[in-house]
Amino acid sequence: MEGRITDIDRFSTHDGPGIRTAVFFQGCPLHCMWCHSPETQPAGAVVVYRKMRCMECQTCVNTCARQAIVRDETKDEEGRTGIRIRKELCIKCFACVKVCPTKALGRSSRRVSLSEVEQILVQDKPFYDNSGGGVTLSGGEILMQAEFALEIVRLCKKMGIHTAIETSGYGRTAQLLAIGREADLIYYDIKMMEEELHRRYTGCDNRLILKNLKELSRHRRETGELVVRIPCIPGINDSPEQIDRTARFIKELGIGWLELLPYNEAASAKYDWLFLKYGLDGLYTRDKAYYEALEENVARMGLKPYRRREK
C-alpha cells in the first residue's frame, strides 16, 4: 500500500507529546484562508517554486513543452527575478522539476509505501520510548487517504508506538471511527460554529464536521483521547462569544479537553511557492493576554486546555 505524502518530519516536538515523527498527507477538502500549508490542499502533487533557490538559469523555461513556464521580470525586494508558471497550461508532468539544478522547483508530495514508513518507525522507536513520543498523522486531511492512515496507525499499535491524528473531521464517518479506534490521541479541529462563516472562510459548510464530532464523542470510550482545537483567527472566529459557543457545544458532548491555537503570522510564507496571494495579508497574532483571557473563560466552563495538562 502507498500514500501521497508531502513530508515526513522526524524528531518533531510540536505535533503531540514527546519526540514524534509527523507524517503529512496530501489532499484536503477544506481550503481555509489561513492555511499554512496550501500545497497540501490539492488531491494530487503540484509544482512548488522556492524562489530563494532559483539561479535564474531558465532551464525549466526551455524544457517545458507546454510553454507553461515563463520568465518573470518582476524584481523582489532583494532585486531577484525568477519564473512564473501559467497554471492553465501546466499538465503537472514535472519535467521542470527533474531538470532544475538547484531544486528551486519541486513536487508537493511523493508516493510513500507502508514499508518505508515502517523502516522509519523502527529507526526512531528508541526516541519515542525515551520521550513518551510517537507518530502523528497530519495533513492536508488524513481522511482523504483514510485506508493508508488506518494501516499506519495499526502498524504503530502492533509495534507499541503511541499514535496521534490531526483531522478536520471532514470525511466518511465510518473511516474516522475506524482510525479513531486504533489511535491513542485525536486532535479534532473546529474552525467555527457559524455555518455561513465556515463556508466563506473554508469553502465547505461544517455540518459533516459537527456530525462526526458528535459520533466520535458518542464512541469516545472506544477511541483515543479526544481533544478539540480551535485555530484562533483574529477578527474571524476568535471573539469571546464565538469561543464560548464552541466551548458550550463540546461541553454538551462530554468532551473535556480544548486547545486554543493562536494565529500563526507565518501562515502566508508558502503561498509564493504556488504563485498565490494570501487572502489574510496584514493579519497579526493577538497579544498573549487576549488568549489567556479566552482560556480563563473556557476553564470556568469546566474545560481544560490540553497543552497545560500534567503528564
Structure description:
- This protein has helices at 59-63, 95-99, 114-131, 146-159, 173-182, 195-202, 207-218, 240-252, 288-300; strands spanning 2-12, 20-25, 47-49, 69-72, 82-85, 105-107, 110-113, 134-138, 162-167, 185-189, 225-232, 257-262, 304-305.
- It is α/β, with parallel strands linked by helices and 311 residues long.
- Strands 7-1-2-8-9-10-11-12-13 form a 9-stranded mixed sheet, covered by helices on one side. A two-stranded antiparallel ribbon has the order 3-6. Strands 4-5 form a two-stranded antiparallel sheet.
- A hairpin with a 7-residue loop joins strand 1 and strand 2.
- Helix 3 (114-131) crosses helix 4 and helix 4 runs parallel beside helix 5.
- The protein is globular.
- The relative contact order is 0.14.
